[in-house]
Amino acid sequence: MDYLFAPDRWEWLFMGNSFRFLIDGLLVNIELALIAMALSLAVGLLLALARTAKKPMIKGPAGIWIDVWRNLPLIFILLYLSLSIPGSWKESYQDSVPSWFPEAFQNGRILAAIVGLTLYNSAVIAEIMRAGIQSLERGQGEAAAALGLPYWKSMRLIILPQGLRRMVPATVSQLITLNKDTTLISILSIQEVMRHGRILGSCLPFTCGVEVPLLQVFLVVGAMFALLNYGLSRLSKRLEIKQREATGIEVEKVTGLEDQVRLETDTK
Amino acid sequence: MGEFWEVLRQHLPEFLSGFFITCRLVAISFVIAVVVGTIIAAFRVAPVKWLQRIGGIYVETFRNIPLLVLIFIFYFGFPETLNIGPWLAGTMALGLYTAAYIAETLRSGVFAVGKGQIDAALSLGLTYRETLQKIILPQSFRTVIPPLGNLIIAMIKNSAIIGASALAIPDLLKSGRIVAAQTAQTLASFFWAALGYLILTITATLVVRSLEKRLAIRR
Asked: Cβ A180–B65 below 8 Å, yes or no?
């Protein structure tokens, strides 16, 4: 217990900018999660439309694409991309990135992280959207067709506004997963919260004046994520209950993801 | 295409050993997860307030912390005298992380059985134990199987984090990276490792789906 709670093992937290340093790292994670989520929503919508299309030539490949990416470990995708993205892409990214972007985003290494998170996450989002679209009664699509609406119009005016509203809770749940997954990019040596933690932990009493034990550092990092994601999980639970009260329909949950299982069990 | 087969032919032993190490990681962590998850679920449904609260805190903490942070806490966090190896740290982290989800799955499975059924069973003169054995558990078992399968799929994917972090266990991802470094055939070596993961996850998905159909309760 002494090992865990001894005051001199916690002193670092209140020294200098240590805490600030961790928060700065966490902000990179949050920004990355938001960017990846925005991109995934756009790509995921296209994938979901392709997946629910009538033509087998579109539907088949889209299904395989989605199933492959969401069944691979994210860390696998990230490591592969970090090795295989050409240097010229990274350079042109570095040249074109706006200067007001945070510092961690100025480096070309972040490109592999953004692409990897989007590839994996857009496949998951596409599945969530597909479940939302298919939870609509068939009559909705048929009525739109009977009114003479072309495909794009019936999608834009009838199907998507209703179907996508049903997937909001599941998307918030997925944001929790995404938030946790951003810690994986530390393996691509991007300066985010895990790296900042390691840097703090490598600080010797000789230079820093206090001991900085890794256990306490990562307990603090863990506590930050716990608070943030707890808020998100409360939000998604509330939205799910509200949505179910409004439509009376339970949208089928996407398989193979722990936080989708969480949403399912939380609201029962 | 030639190099693809060449890489597989020359490095099949590495890929296979990585594949089985991944399987072993998942199996050990799953056992830990089920044991701890059952205990926490029992806490969550216990009639004692403070036990419920402990269960609740466990679930909310372990579900909301990234797995990588847990791995670091377990690997770097213990005193050196305890000498926690990479296997123990990795499987404990993955097991305790998944245990939180399993606990919630089991709890919701117990509650999925209507209260009316329990009252009916008790009023028919069944004891509490008989009610649990003959009425509650058979039904909750069925509702719990599909989400448990989903958690195994998530575990297979999460197990790659153990091998990629500081722990350096030669699992499928790690062997893929080693072969890639040796042969300079990045695409081919990652392709075969990816195939290994897809075999595991897609098989698990298909099994879960067929079980789900077979066990579906018409209510």
From this structure: yes
How would residue B128 be classed by pLDDT, with cut points 50, 70 and 90?
Answer: confident
**Separation between Cα atoms, residue A202 and residue A254, nearest integer Å:** 41
Report pLDDT digits (tens) over A213-267: 888 889 999 999 999 999 998 898 888 888 888 877 777 777 767 888 888 777 7
DSSP structure class, residue A1: -
The residue extents of the domains of chain B are 2-215
Cβ burial, residue B217 (10 Å; 0-12/13-18/19+): exposed
DSSP state of B133: I
Pick the closest to residue A158 from A173, A138, A175, A178 (CA basis). A138
Round to whole Å and give the CA distance between B130 and B26.
Answer: 34
How many whole angstroms separate alpha carbon A198 and alpha carbon A194? 6
Which chain A residues have a beta carbon less than 8 Å from that of B112?
Answer: 268
Cα A165 from Cα A158, distance rounded (Å): 12
Q: Are A19 and A10 in contact (CB under 8 A)?
A: no
Cα A214 → chain centroid: 26
> Is residue B110 over pLDDT 90?
no
Q: Which residues of B touch A215 (CB under 8 A)?
A: 73, 76-78
- B73 neighbors A218 (Cβ within 8 angstroms): yes
Q: Do B112 and A268 touch (CB under 8 A)?
A: yes
CATH class of B2-215: mainly alpha
Of the CA atoms within 13 Å of residue A81, those in its CB half-sphere come to: 25
Residue A101 · residue A213 · CB < 8 Å: no
Q: Where are the domains of chain A?
A: 2-266
> Are B160 and A264 inside 8 Å of each other by CB?
no
Taking alpha carbons only, the member of B211, B209, B178, B208 closest to residue B192 is B178
A2-266 folds as MetI-like fold (1.10.3720)
Q: Do A258 and B112 touch (CB under 8 A)?
A: no
Q: What is the ipTM of this complex?
A: 0.89
Buried b or exposed e, range B94-121, using 16+ CB within 10 angstroms: bbbbbbbbbbbbbbbbbbbbeeeebeeb
Q: Is the dihedral of CA A73, A79, A81, A83 positive or negative?
A: negative
